[in-house]
Amino acid sequence: MSDIEAAIRDNHPALITYLTAGDPSLEDTKAYVEALDRGGADLIELGLPFSEPIAEGPTIQAAINRALDAGTTPAGFFELVDELETEAPLLVMTYYNMILQYGDSEAPRASESDAAPPQSKPDVRLFVERAAEVGLSGIIVPDLPAEESEPLRAACDEHGLDLVFIVAPTTEGERLETIMSQVSGFAYVQARLGTTGARADVSNATHDSLARLSAYDVPKAVGFGVSKGDHAAEIIEAGADGVIVGSALIDIVAESDTPAIDLEAKAEELKRGAIRGTDGTGEDEIDAPEPEQP
User: Which residue out of 5, 27, 34, 45 is catalytically annotated?
Assistant: First the structure.
């Protein structure tokens, strides 16, 4: 069992959190990751900024832009991860072109005096090898179809990393079978169609997706729109093994005067909500006031 799968099964129901690395700086990200770890996050996703994040809504797009404006690079990202010490395993979430570009940029170059080398495809193994070296446990690539994932899948297997796929509400039939045969660590269940972003409620599609995936023996975690403890409770009660929260945390990073403190508190709230989902209550317990002493 991988570190990621063990983190979900051993800490069921699991809280999986997301931050964009470098927003507003890599130094700040380090403090924020440590705050989420203290607050009870069981897995932590770190977004490696990419200029065309097709799966992201306005909140995370803005975070990615801030990180890019701050000069965040793959090299800086990997240095950050190498410095982190957390109880929660870490994953990188990025887009396939970033992985390809890293392989291309790290490949040996011929000198000007050398004959031009033959053209070859960028090597995804270089990104995966570096990810393993700094202690990442898995990779999420929203724009990589499972049908085209074999090179990255093989590299992840070679270096002991999980490759997590996103399952959309409309995914079914042969395509669903393909994804579930390739996924490792957990299945990232997309709660609703569209892009990421905090929402006021839990989509009915969440319940349908979890029912459709119930026969597969792999942990299922639901993301896209989760923003508060009550959402977490409802999702766990519907059969998920974990909840994934990103935009609500990015809002704290962008708006709070004390983001590390507030991120830790938000993680605690979300973890409590997830735990409530296991007992079927789904709502915060309100402590009765103690009787006054005579």
Answer: 45
